[in-house]
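User: We ran a pulldown and think these components assemble together. Before we commit to crystallization trials, I'd like a predicted model of the whole complex to look at. Sequences follow.
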Amino acid sequence: MSELFPAVWKQITSSPRHLKCYEQAVAALDTDTCAFLELRTDLGVSLAEPAVKEYGSLSGIPFAVKDNIAVKGFQFSCGSQILAGLRSPYTATAVERLLHAGAVPIGKTNLDEFGMGSSNQNSACKPTVNPWDLSRVPGGSSGGSAAAVSAGYVPFALGSDTGGSVRQPAAFCGIFGFKPTYGTVSRYGLAAYASSLETIGFMTAQAEQLIPIFEAASGADGRDQTSLDCSDTTDLTEGIQTVAVLAGDLGLDAPVLRGYSKAIEAFRSLGWNIVEVKLPSLDYAVPSYYTIASAEASANLARYTGVRYGSRSREEHDHQHMVRRTRDEGFGKEVKLRILLGTYVLREGFQDQYYVQAQKIRTLIRNEFSKLFTKAGVLLLPTFPIQAFPIGDGGLTSMQQKLADRFTLPANLAGLPAVSFPTGIESGLPVGMQLMGPAMSDRSLIRLTAHVSRCFPEVALPRRFSPGEVTHG
Amino acid sequence: MAQDDIRMIGQLAMIELHESEQDELAQGIKQMLQYMQHMSDVDLSDVEPTTHALADGLVLRSDTVHYDEDVREALLKEAPERNGSFITIGKVLT
Amino acid sequence: MVEIFIGLEIHIQLMTRSKVFCSCEMISGEEPNTRICPVCMGYPGVLPAVNEQALFLSYLMGSALNCTLAQKTWFDRKNYFYPDMTKNYQISQFSSPVGRGGWMDYLEKGELKRVHIHDIHLEEDAGKMVHQGNFSLLDYNRAGSSLLEIVTEPELTSPEAAEVFLQSFRSLVRCLRACDGNMETGSLRCDANVSVNSLGMGLGTKVEIKNLNSSRFVRKALEYEVRRQSRLMQAGKPVIQETRLWNEQSGKTESMRTKEEAKDYRYFPEPDIPPFVPSEAFLNRVTSSLTELPAARELRYIREYGLTEETAHYLAEERERAEYFEELISSGTEVAAAAAWIKGELAKLQGRYAFSLSDGTLPPQAVTTVVRMTGTEELTVQQAKQVLELMVQRGIVQPEEVIAQEGFKKAEDDGELKEIISKIVAEHLNAAEQIRDGNMKAVGYLMGMVMKETRQSADPRTARRLLLEEIGCKQEE
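Assistant: Here's a predicted model for the assembly, 1044 residues in total across the polymer chains.
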């Protein structure tokens, strides 16, 4: 696997002098991009296991971790003021397994607070910007990780994907973003936003690199009883090669539509059949998703009260008042909105109308996908209807962003694997398309993505950081 | 979305809401709820809800004890206020 | 005439080694916050991992309480904020508890009674909070401990019945080794709900009572509450549906006067734990771990063995005692003797040396041997007691060994004993003279000499007869 990653990375992580130069170089570059919330190569190296650092499948490869995933000793802010100052006392299983394969975590990346958002503008910290155009968003919520990989700071990064949070920023930044089948990667250590929907995901500059990373990080974990081994041996490139596409007008921006057409063309050129399919329940995917996600979030974020860790409101008052103040001061607007919405839909007398109805739509969506994958190997669809949008008022409103998640969140509702891959540069910005496969087809889906990607020009940021500068400089 | 409603869910969710943002949040919630209303267009009376991403296959944990003193110390160090081994908070109203 | 309806909500801490969702040790009375980890402290990113033994004991309890056991069970989140609850939702069971619709039989004054069980469900315990002036101190050692809640139907008809039921329930959980049943340490906690109504009118307005940490307080609080509610009824005043606290000092229940806050637990299925479908092997293990329950045992002891209610209750109450009793019988001790030895000498020795009947200190076969030797007059009762005590003291499990060490033996025949007696009489002619004169006090003195000389092996009745013969005094009736 080593040829997948330039040997220079291992050279850097095995030399304290190179490591220091590397950290300084990345830190300097990142003053523009703001991908990292914390960059600590020394801490990362101290966590790495010396024996496997030499021989592991990812030996000496540095990586970045979204700051809603626990790495012992590193900060664990989830992009929120409410967890300011928290140092994680433990390490997430996925990170532990990557450490065991020899990889070296070097820092924590920026995100929309608790993963809630598609732009990185909901971070309590200075927002990350898109390395392709510093006036645009990198996408979200794993925007920091996407920017870090896109800018070349690290060869890969961890994100989390609740409704598209790995795939959408990958599309915005011109890299690969992989959301595995629900459960194949342990969620232990991933700060929960919507437990039944989310997974840890991976971001790389090349599709093939996803394979050893997924191999190392996945597998059943006793600490996450919703986890399981990815034991399936589906080969999507064998047999009848049929790719499904959605029928009708998908409402895409012109540059995204161009990318989409090119992707369909690529499959055709590879000899695949194209079938148009209708998934009627997808019309209800967005409201279903936001009902379930908000409901789960309202409980998942109830633990943040300033009692045991994180920030505590400093005003003098009784305990209950302190908790209310802490949560008011500590949470951003979008987080409050989703907590309150989730509280509302779970209330007695309202559950059937909202929460239960949403869970039933989820059943329909799962059934429609099961049926689809008896007819086609994969589903090709855009990742996001538009390209990276401008920061601030020229961008999308919070509501518009939610509606635009319609292509990514079905995979979360159905628990299926999906990859976003770059199809090239349109109008000066990257475009990403998405492949979804049946449950447990993860490895094959990555291989297919790599195969299809060869039809497209390589998408690489012109001013990309090159690790060679560190060892030669 | 009445003011009372938002105040009530604010209480359930233990978030004190500034007067200034109450209207904006109420608007946002109202907008989402209206949008969610579309779900009732579909007749789902004979559909089972999906409550778990995985239907079954729960592998239980065996009843063994594990303890790490270092972790305990790290946990206590994170507490905003302490009194010896206790974590302290202000007076709890009952 | 009024009718009383009492229901109990009982929480038992299950006897698992680790907590219900993490590997921290279940222990009480430790230094604060020493049994904590990121999971039970509700850190971001942690997940619950269900303890197999906790689910097993829950199913075992469900089975013992004749519940319909769930073929598929899952957990729900119960949402409310409280500082001793780290996630501010409790993982509990709402829509699919482990067991529903069971019953428990118990004996009240020898009469078999039945109380129906509404449901039993597994959940996590909260931490502990100590109030100190303007501050509250939090200790999370108990947070996440495995807790089983048992809810009875409101079928108990008097405070005494509630007390007896609770004692019987305690005996049952101890018998199943599901809980240590200690109410003082809070391993077993009980809230009561009670309503009073005119006869035939059905349930009245329910009042919940909390802070009941002994079965006696349960009775006293209920007695007080029944009086209070009856008085209100007589005065034509309404009973307010509320939660009241038992105040041990004043002997009264007091309104908690909680702020009228919106309460809505917003239960929804816990997404972090897939539903549990017990396998056949799991259910077989549950069935094979069931044992005869105390009430059934007690009834059997009365019916089959003719024991008194009091003795039967004493023997059946604790599983190890009952099993010991039955082992004594099966190894050959008579029922009456077995009961008498357990209630008498063995209880005394247990009190003195703090051992348990099941720990092998006094194997039942050994006790049977010793008891048998008293029957064949190889040992006097006094010697038998001494042998048992020495076995405990010396850590010896073979009674023969202690008997040999002490040289206890039955006098071979009367000849040997006669020889000893005539020697003693010859040496104490004065005493013999006094006895002949009717001073029977001296008999005791000479008997003491005889017993000492024979190292207690002589049967006192035989020795006394021979002594009086030797002196030439007629055996008194």
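Chain A has a mean pLDDT of 95. That may be worth checking against your pulldown data before setting up trials.

User: Thanks, that helps.
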